[in-house]
Each structure stands twice: as C-alpha cells, then as structure tokens.
Write a structure and sequence with these properties.
The protein is α/β, with parallel strands linked by helices. Helix content is 20%, strand content 21%. It has an 8-stranded mixed β-sheet with strand order 1-2-3-5-7-9-10-11. A hairpin with a 2-residue loop joins strand 2 and strand 3 (53-58).
Length: 208
C-alpha cells in the first residue's frame, strides 16, 4: 500500500513538473508575440505586427527616418533630425499591409516606409494631414491606397515634387486610390493625386 502511495505521489510530482514547464513555455510564446507591440519613441504612437500587417495606433506625429533611398552619402544627412531606421525595419520584407488607425498619427514621416519590397496596400485615415517626402518611395509592389479625406487638400503633400519623392519609381496609374464616395472629382483635379487610378467606395466609419 505504501509503495502504491509513493508511486502515486511520484506521478503527481512529475505531472506538476510537466504542467509547470508547459505553462512557462506557453507564457514565453505569448510574451514573444506581444513583444512585437511597442512604442514609437516618445511620440505617443505604437506599432504592432499582426501577421503581415503593420498596425499603427495611438495619437501623435510620426517621426522622420533615414533610408539609403533618400540620400546619396552620409554628409547629406548632417544634422538630420533622426538618423535612424524605423523600429520595425528588420521586418520590412514581411510587411504587406500598413494600417494606420483612426485617431492615430497626424503625419506620415519621411522614409518611414521607403524600400519595402512586398508592401501592397496602405490605409490612411482622415486624421493624417501631412505626408512627408520619401514616405513610400521604392515600394515596387504597392498597388492600393485607401484614404478618407473628403477634401484631398486637407492633407499636405510635397508638391510639386510629390511623385518624384514620396512615390518615387512607381507608376501612379497602376495604383488604385480608394476615396470616399462622392469625392472622385476632387481627387481627379488635385495635383498630387490626379494620376492615380481613382475609385470611390462607401465609407467604413470604423476605419475613418
């Protein structure tokens, strides 16, 4: 009887050990996933990789970043505000969608998405009022941008050099620009957006 009791205790101890070990492994995995959610400096903004989608949340102004696409030599960036790569830069080849959330950034910073080889689509809410130069240039697979300005003039872009820098080496006629219903005419006459393939769609209030 005693041997049976000792055997049972031993089995219970082993089970508890394996349960504890499994719990630690699961916790480690959970933490490793959530480690991809982090602040963007001291901007009040946060970033998260959700599969192949980069999600930007919070409120504030996106910082400017440096990329090899915007300068020809180091001396060109003397006193450059942030001689840094974005915090998600190492994952850029795995990013297919950029989703900027409502009540998020007011500015899309310089170079912040420059040179993302697999970036396909971008969602820009109405609260973004400035797109800095080089923001999306050399993104060869970018083919869809969704915006929510009822008046495109609300967002300041680098005119007239907008296409020469922000979307450098891209053909706007190959990029679908999804705009709010009833606003296509405004975009078709706007100097920065008129060359895009403009299409209207009903507004999704959750994504504005």
């Amino acid at each position: 009887m005693k041997q049976k009791t000792d055997k049972t205790k031993k089995e219970m101890t082993q089970r508890m050990y394996f349960i504890t070990l499994l719990s630690r492994i699961i916790l480690t995995l959970v933490l490793s996933v959530h480690a991809q959610t982090a602040p963007i400096g001291k901007t009040g903004l946060y970033w998260e990789l959700n599969g192949d989608t980069l999600v930007i949340t919070g409120e504030g102004k996106m910082p400017d970043y440096f990329s090899a696409y915007s300068v020809s030599k180091v001396s060109d960036v003397t006193n450059y505000r942030l001689y840094l790569r974005s915090p998600w830069y190492s994952s850029r080849e795995n990013i297919y969608t950029v989703d900027i959330q409502t009540s998020g950034p007011t500015t899309i910073g310089s170079d912040i998405f420059a040179g993302y080889p697999n970036l396909v689509s971008v969602h820009i809410p109405a609260n973004v009022t400035t797109i800095e130069r080089y923001a999306f240039h050399v993104c060869p697979n970018l083919n869809e941008i969704t915006v929510h300005w009822t008046n495109p003039s609300v967002c300041r872009v680098s005119k007239p050099a907008f296409m020469k820098s922000t979307f450098k080496k891209l053909t706007p006629g190959n990029i679908t620009l999804r705009v709010p219903e009833g606003t296509a005419v405004k975009y078709q006459s706007h100097c920065a957006w008129k060359k895009f393939r403009i299409t209207e769609e009903a507004e999704n209030t959750d994504k504005m």
